[in-house]
Amino acid sequence: MLVTLTAADGLLFDIRYATSDNLTGRPIYTRPVAMLLPEARDRLRHAGRLAAQLGLRLKVYDAFRPIEAQWALWHAVTDKRFVADPRAGGVHPRGAAVDLTLVDSNGDELPMGAGFDEIAARSAHGVADIPADAQRNRALLLGLMTAAGWDHYRLEWWHYQLHTARNHPPLNATAVPGGPM
Description:
Shape: globular
Radius of gyration: 15 Å
Distance between the termini: 15 Å
CATH topology: Muramoyl-pentapeptide Carboxypeptidase, domain 2
Number of strands: 7
Number of domains: 1
GO molecular function: D-Ala-D-Ala dipeptidase activity; metallopeptidase activity; zinc ion binding
Active site: 156 (proton donor/acceptor)
Organism: Limobrevibacterium gyesilva
Function: Catalyzes hydrolysis of the D-alanyl-D-alanine dipeptide.
């Protein structure tokens, strides 16, 4: 069962796939909603509390992604290392992954050296060709998320998933509380 993330969870939201400001250039979701499995929500809230101790907050770009939306991304991206094959389910369609960034006390995103969903080598963790402040910010996000029990995807600084993500079934849009996204 998926639970909806809200501002009461201490999070900010910029659900990119409900807008045209994403790598497809068009909205994929009909409404800006972020949902996760209860365990993932608890771990994300923990990461948010850790960030708050440093005067920072988490901003969520994406969480649960129905299989239908996974197909839209699959068709839009040529470098398939940046999108999971919908036939295998991926981890976003399981409600066990989140795409996010860190923001300061003013709500401004910390520089990460590459944009969200940027299909480029510089989006990976551990790259040396980004500014030092962006390297520190990525390391900080990685540390916060890891401390809260998340795993990361090495090619995307913004993507985190439960270690047990593949133990959960992939879901389609009819699984969304309140109707399809």
